[in-house]
Amino acid sequence: MPQPWWRSGTVYQIYPHSFADGNGDGMGDLAGILSRVDHLQWLGVDAVWLSPVYPSPQHDNGYDVSDYRDIDPRFGTLVDLDRVIEALHERGIRLIMDLVVNHTSNEHPWFVGACESRENPYRDWYIWRDPRPGTMGGEPGAEPTNWGSFFSEPAWTWHEPTGQYYLHLYARQQPDLNWRNPQVRTAVHELMGWWLDRGVDGFRMDVINLISKPDELLDGPIVAGAMFSDPSQFVRFGPRLSEHLAEMHESVFANRPADLVRIGETPGLTVEQARQLTRSRECGLDMVFQFEHMELDRTPGDRLSPVQVSIPALRENLQRWQTALAGQGWNSLYGNNHDQPRLVSRFGDPSPEHWAASAKAVALALYLLQGTASMFQGEEIGMVGATVRSAADLRDIRSVNYLRAATMAGLDEASVLEALRRTARDNARTPVQWSTATDAGFGSMTPWMPVAEHLPTITVEAQRNDPDSVLHFYRALIALRHEYPIIADGASRMLDTGPTPIMAYLRETAAETLIIVANLSSVAQAVPALLARHLAAASPPLLQSGPRGGTGTLAPWQAFAARLPGSPP
Ligand code: TEU
Q1: 206 is catalytic
Q2: Could you say which residues of the chain have pLDDT below 70?
Q3: Which residue is catalytic, options 64, 98, 265, 286?
Q4: What distance in angstroms lies between residue 437's CA and the mean position of ligand 1's atoms?
Q5: What is the pLDDT of residue 549?
Q6: pLDDT in tens, 51-80
Q7: Within 6 Å (CB) of ligand 1, which residues are found?
Q8: d(CA 223, CA 305)
Q9: How far out from the chain centre does Cα 550 lie?
């Protein structure tokens, strides 16, 4: 049986707002993407995941869709999208669309209809409830449950004209669809088929694990210091989730080619649940973006408040996912995206001395595990996080709402901003730095978000000319994943490196073994005894980053992959 392409493949996420601006209006667009497809081909990626380009009022940068079958004029037209698909396909690159169907925009005609009257045919496409008994609708505390949205507001908004509340797990401009209604499910299946007929190669499904809500919606506990209860516990694996995904497979994918990919974005999902959703194609998902490793450096219950990352904890977590999904599901490997801070700023060391070696070391440690690599635009040149001087530099609705709620609760703005500098989603959303031109080659002098302050070497142009650059390293890493089937197929075994910041693991098949070692710190590390025994027998590196340490020492951010004996040449 041929293996699906994604096992050895790399997905490259394009966040259209910030990738490249083709018409100079400050906002990236499809024409910009078209002008940069050669970069993607040179890099060697297998697929592009395109964040939403559908018509949208942009309250959540396109994750609030008002028409599922068109393109927002700020990004171009359907004809432009067809051109992008064609240009990618000509280069052997697939296109994965973002499917945002847990919620729509409040400006989507379905919701506009639903708001007209309780009798409107679209009313039941959304989730409506009466005020809490004994209260007056619209007053604080009258919400049907005490749930908070993920954007620091109540999860219910009062609709005065029809006298009910509607549910929104995200912004009030993002009402949740009612997946219990079969008409909703059919409409989603149809629009998916429409895009597949147009030539797209799969979907990244936004918060797809949140689509099934319990029949009865109940209050949850409120942790100390919080305003609302966290609805995740009720909705992250709702009663009909598996059923809805299996039905989606049956109605959309069963009679289509098996190389169309379905990637579920699934905050809060456990390994066992991930296995349930990805263990066979009929379950509906081929892999999930899980969140556990993205929450290890966050305060529980407050995802925008940072704590120091622990490499041993990260290692342990990644290995748990590797083991649990081996042979019974499939992992995705990611360390950043448009919602997460930049990889090198978060897990590496962005200081001029260590920036390059650390960007490479983190990538090597992550992407040689078993799973599909998923990279975010600009990561391949080691881009660092946004420069946030003041609250006015924050664009993301989540950051803005969080700051407002925290200061209203009495926290001081400077310290909240300090936390947001490390955790805000704004971090990864700055324009891609293509060149050293004043507009960084983005295509506009006044981009919607300012270019991040960066070293002059952090541009595509500079790094293309330097064979030792982060960019060339990423290209070699992507190629290595294609070249060595063991990276797709081998079992993963984390080596015990104790409390050190060293991540070391083996990839094993009956025929061969690879060893991957990375010192994920800016301090030289003595090699632990167990690792030293392996290293004594290892081949010259297949790929390496950073300066070499002496015997028995790993230099700061030294990382490499090598063969162990028993391997054929
Ligand atoms: O993100 C979901 C997400 O990452 C978090 O908001 C998550 O739900 C939260 O941490 C609770 O665990 C997706 C998109 O990637 C993001 O850009 C959108 O804002 C969001 O869904 C809503 O569509």
Answers
A1: yes
A2: 1, 566-569
A3: 265
A4: 34
A5: 80
A6: 999 999 999 999 999 999 999 999 999 999
A7: 60, 63, 100, 150, 170, 206-207, 232, 265, 267-268, 303, 338-339
A8: 15
A9: 38
